[in-house]
């Protein structure tokens, strides 16, 4: 975070009463938790994709690569 932004946040935070400051802090903590959640979700998605690729990419499963044709589903 830039110094200018830090100073602006500090000035604004000093204008809050205790109840408002608690709400602001809760919101900041929510934003940080949301960011961690998104990162974790991406990591789980990537890991599961790699695991499923090992299961799906094999000669026994190849018949399903053309599932639309196999089940008569049109591309439209």
Could you describe the 3D structure shown?
The protein is an all-alpha fold and about 80 residues long. It has one domain. The longest helix is centred in the middle third of the chain and has 39 residues. The radius of gyration is 25 Å and the shape is rod-shaped. The mean pLDDT is about 90.
Task: Give the structure's gist in a few sentences.
Helices cover 74% and strands 0% of the residues.
Spell out the blueprint of helices and strands.
Layout: H1 3-14, H2 18-56, H3 67-71
How many beta-strand runs?
A: 0
Low-confidence stretches: none
What does the oligomeric state look like here?
single chain
Structural class: mainly alpha
Q: How much helicity do the residues have? A: over 70%
Largest sheet: none
| Strand proportion | under 5%
Overall geometry comes to rod-shaped
Q: What's the overall average pLDDT, rounded?
A: 89
Question: What's the helix count?
Answer: 3
The radius of gyration over CA amounts to 25 Å
Number of domains: 1
Order of SSEs, N→C? HHH
Q: Quote the distance from N terminus to C terminus.
A: 49 Å
Notable features of this structure?
76 residues; mainly alpha; 74% helix; rod-shaped
């Amino acid at each position: 975070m830039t110094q200018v932004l830090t100073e602006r946040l500090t000035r604004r935070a000093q204008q809050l009463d205790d109840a408002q400051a608690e709400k602001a802090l809760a919101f900041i903590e929510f934003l940080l938790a949301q960011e961690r959640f998104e990162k974790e979700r991406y990591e789980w998605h990537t890991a599961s994709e790699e695991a499923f690729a090992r299961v799906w990419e094999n000669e026994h499963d190849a018949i399903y690569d053309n599932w639309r044709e196999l089940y008569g589903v049109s591309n439209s």
